[in-house]
Amino acid sequence: MRVNAHPTDERFTLHLESCDDLTLSTFYQMVLWRELSLARLPLTRLEGSLSLVKRDEELEGRKRVKTYVGSGDRGRTSLLSGERVEKSHGRIEAVGDVDEINSLLGALIAALPERQGELREELQGIQADLFHVGAWLATSPGSPTLKMLREIGPGHTKALEAAIDRIEAALPPLRSFILPGGHPTAAWAHIARAVCRRAERQVLRLAAGETAERLSSVIAYLNRLSDYLFVLARFCNTLHGIPDEVWQK
Amino acid sequence: MTILSSGNSLTSPFTAELLRRSWLSEKTFELELIRPATFQFRPGQRIRLLHKGAERDYSLLSRPDSPHLGLCVRHLPAGIFSSILAAAEIGTSFTFTGPHGYFIFQKSSRPPVFVATGTGVAPFLSMTRSGVVGFTMVHGVRTAAELYYRPDFLAAASLYVPCLSHVLPESVLPPGAYCGRVTEYLRDHLPPGAYDFYLCGRREMIRDVTLLVDERFAESLVYAEIFY
C-alpha cells in the first residue's frame, strides 16, 4: 500500500494505492492518521502500512523535553521556585554563568584523548553537580522547593580538594604566573576557570542580598572549582607534553 | 583516579508488574502497576518507563502510600509506547526510573490554581488523593468524555471548571462547563490577584497561560510540567 498525502490550503487529501514503498515524513504520517481516524477507515485496510508508524515518535502522548515553549519570548522566565522574573535577573545571570562553565567542560571533554576515560568521568560528575548548583541558584530563599534539591555541601568541595591534590602531585612545581593556553583542552579549562570566577562573583552578589547563608556552600564549591580548573589546565598541557608558558614580566 | 562525584543523578531502575488497565474514554486508559516496595515518590512526580531502548515519562496518579502506581495514558494509534501499554498483557513487567521532577504542591498564602489539558490532570489527581483541597481546577479538554477523574476534583476543589473546546449544538454540557480554552477562561473569569499556578499539559497551553500570568497576574508563581 502506498500513501500520498498532499496538503492543499488547510485541508489534506489522501491517495491510497498499491505499492510496497512506504516512505513518508512524520508530518505526513500525522496527517494520515488524523485523516484516517476522522474517516474511520477500518484498520484492516492499513495492515500493509504499519511500517509507516515505526519511525514516528512525534505522536506519542508523553511528556518530553521540548527545545522551545515560547513562554520566555517577552523576556521573562520562571525560577524553579515559581517566580516569574526578568531574564536579566541576578539569579538568571548566575544560572547562566554556571551553564557556561558546564558547556565549556563539555567542550573540554570532547577534546580529551580517548584514553582519558577516568578524567572524562570525573568531569562529567562535575557537570552533574553543576546542574544541582544551578537548581540552588534558581530557587529563592525560603521556598519550599529548596527541600527537594540535592545539597551542594562541604563534601563536594572536599572532593575537589582531593582531586586538586592528586593532579598537582603529577605536575612540576609552579613558581611563576603562567599564560592561559597551550593545548586546546588546557585552553578550554582556562576559559572555564575564568567563567567560574565570574559565576562566583555573581553568586556573591546574590548572597549579599540574602539573610540566610544557604549559598555559602555554593560559593566555596565555585571557589574550589576554579582552583581545580587551573590545575586541570596545567594537567592537560602536561598530558600533551606542552610546558607551562611562563609570564615574562 | 578518584571520581569526584556520584555522577549523573540517574536512579537505579525499578521493575513493576502490570496489575490492571481500565479505559477512561475511547482513547485514554489508566494503568495500575504494582509499586516496588523500595520506590518512594511525592505527589506530582513522574516515572520514566523504559522499553527496548525507548523511554516515556508519565505522571503518577496515586497516593505515595498506595500499593499501586497509577498512570493515565492517552493512546494514539501511531504512538509506539502508548500502543505497547495499551496492548500489554496483565502481569507484564515494566522497567522504570524515578521519581523525576519538581512538580510538587507547595503550601502558600496564595490561592492555588491547577490548570491541565487532557491527561495533564494526572499529577493533580495524585495531589488531590494525598489530601490537597481548596484549589481552583481548570481542565481543558475537547469533549466532556475526556473529563477524567471529575468526581475526585469536584470533591476536593473549591472551584472545578471543565473547559470544552469542541462543543457541538447537540452536546450535553456538564454543570459549570465553560465553552472555550483554559486560557480564555482564566483571562475572562479569574479575578485579578496573586496565585500559585500549577500548569500541566501541552506546551502551547503552558506558553499561553504563562504569558497571561505575566500580563494579568504578575505577582503569581508558576510551576509547569510540559508534555506533548
Tell me the layout of helices and strands.
The complex is a heterodimer of chains A (249) and B (228).
Chain A: E1 2-8, E2 11-17, H1 26-39, E3 76-78, E4 84-86, H2 90-111, H3 117-137, H4 154-168, H5 184-208, H6 216-239
Antiparallel strand pairs in A: 1-2, 3-4
Helix pairs in contact in A: 2-3, 2-5, 4-6, 5-6
Chain B: E1 14-23, E2 28-34, E3 46-51, E4 54-59, E5 68-74, H1 80-87, E6 93-100, E7 112-117, H2 122-129, E8 136-141, H3 150-156, E9 159-164, E10 178-179, H4 182-189, E11 196-202, H5 203-216, E12 221-227
Parallel strand pairs in B: 7-8, 7-11, 8-9, 9-10, 11-12
Antiparallel strand pairs in B: 1-2, 1-6, 2-5, 3-4, 3-6
Give your account of this protein's structure.
With 249 residues, chain A is mainly alpha-helical. Helices cover 49% and strands 8% of the residues of chain A. A 6-stranded antiparallel beta sheet of chain B has the order 4-3-6-1-2-5, with helices on one face. Chain B has a 6-stranded parallel beta sheet with strand order 10-9-8-7-11-12, covered by helices on one side. The model of chain B is unreliable at 1-9 (pLDDT under 50). In chain B, 44% of the residues are buried. Chain B has 2 domains: 14-100, Beta Barrel (Elongation Factor Tu (Ef-tu), domain 3); 112-227, Rossmann fold (3-Layer(aba) Sandwich), CATH 3.40.50.80. Chain B contains 5 helices and 12 strands. Chain B has 228 residues and is of the alpha/beta class. Classes of the chains: A mainly alpha (249), B alpha/beta (228). Chains A and B meet through helix 1, helix 3 and helix 4 of A and strand 4, helix 1, helix 5 and strand 12 of B.
